[in-house]
Write a structure and sequence with these properties.
Blueprint (H helix, E strand, L loop, with lengths): L2 H10 L4 H15 L2 H8 L3 H10 L15
Helix pairs in contact: 2-4, 3-4
């Protein structure tokens, strides 16, 4: 789905696109480690970590790597 198309559809229904995008990202970083969200969605890890702090998240450390062993 093209982002512009989705943006136009949301706007037609009165949903403020930028606010919805920001709120969604803030909720995601409270549910999963910020570096994982950053890597998956193409954000800088510093940005997503800041969103965790601003949102009152308690997960402030994340050990990257393979933890399956």
């Amino acid at each position: 789905m093209i982002a512009r198309y989705l943006s136009d559809k949301l706007s037609k229904h009165g949903i403020p696109v930028q606010a919805a995008r920001t709120a969604t990202l803030q909720q995601l970083v409270l549910q999963a480690p910020a570096p994982v969200i950053a890597n998956s969605l193409g954000f800088h890890h510093v940005h997503t970590t800041r969103l965790v702090r601003e949102g009152g998240g308690t997960r402030n450390r994340y050990a990257a790597g393979d933890h399956t062993q």
